[in-house]
Amino acid sequence: MEPLAGKNESLGRDLALFVTAAFLFRAGFWMAMPRVLDTADAIHYLDVAKALLACDFFGYEARIPTLFPALTALVHLAVPDIEVAARLVSLAASTLLVIPVYQLSRELHGRPAAVLSAITISIWPWLADYGCRVGPDALGCTLWFSAVWLFVCGLRRNWLWMLPAAAAFFALHLARNEGTYIWLAALPAALIICGKKDRRRLLALLPFALVSAGLLLLYAAYMKRVVGTATVSYPSTYMIETHLAAHKEIAKTFLKLFGEAIPVMLGPVLLLFAGVGFFERSEEQPRDMRLESAVLFFAAAQFSLAVLNLSPAPRYVMALIIVVSLWSARGMAHVSTQLRAATQSRVVAALPVAALIAVMMLGTAVALATEHMGERPREPREYKEAGLWMKTHLEPGPIVSRKPQVGFYAGMTTVGVPADGSLPEIIAWGREVGARYLVVDERYTAQLVPALRALLNPPDAPQDLSLLYDATPYPAARVVVYEILRVGEEAGP
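^ that's the sequence the OP posted. Answer follows.
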């Protein structure tokens, strides 16, 4: 696609520079941070990818958004390790995030702010972290900004931009459960952008609506084969129906996100300059309040959906946090201009961006240091070590465990642990479902299932269990593997 009208030749140079910088930073982060699957959801995404690779297009878990697994399956055709293939999808998506963020920031606040936004995205350790994970967060965020930017172009530049805009919203719909509702937010956002004076621009919504309707009809027909009902968004429908009635939890999630997660992830520097960016006037770059309001409306929709989904984790409002950083970049650009005018010094004028880079590098150093200083790593690397040991030394069999990562690396199926059961009840239940092994870990299982806590000390284990593996590779990260003996069978020596 050609650059937007009014963009000078610096655009291509800027994008090439910052995409390269973002990739190098994320690649370095990848190499410096040992990675394992840190969530059960990550395994579900890989399972769907495996199903798609096996040409099972209708029997996978329908609550899992399919775009990330589908891309993982494609990459896995060339990359033997499916976990690495999934991480490569996240790496590519996180790297490309620079492009729509730069473009949207430039449309909002001009080139100086866009450059600072691109710097922020390129070296933000939080984003680099998710650019190395198995999950749709990096992909969904890149599609979120791509869809919003293309939609703005369709309203303000040429209606032809609405065709890729609809495709981007559809891709977001396939990548994130809340993507359907962000897509629906496009209509009120268009009214905000155009207002009463520019109603003719709303005609661009016609091709957008036609393409969107066609894509959704095709998707609904496909979902009828998958779940038996023609639905445009089975995952998001399930999400809303499950959580909407939890009023107290909604309030707690709101306070957690608004009062803790968002301020912590932005940090003092971005928060400070965001205040300047939101409220300070600038003669150098007149403000486009309609466009700013529309972008904030999309961000507010994302926040509302995270609250309704009872999801206080920062990753669920990643797009919102990055949107706020656009105003941080505007604030930094404004302060830099004022400092340059007051002091006639380029060094002084560079202090805002120097503060940003310093904070980002400090955050990166802290994240990396904690992984290599002998403390318990943030990710459960002990799960992988235990799972690989089981794969090498034990015959395959079902595992009773609270977390499925050990089973994933062992190549064995996992059945969950009843959280409120006693130890004899859990062992009896394991025998009933045909489980062969019981895995207890110090990080999570011992905290979530009190009855299993005693098994971290093998001498306290009952005679129904035979000790197979006991290791503490990191502080407070013990993993113990037992064999569930059949009735009347005695433990080995």
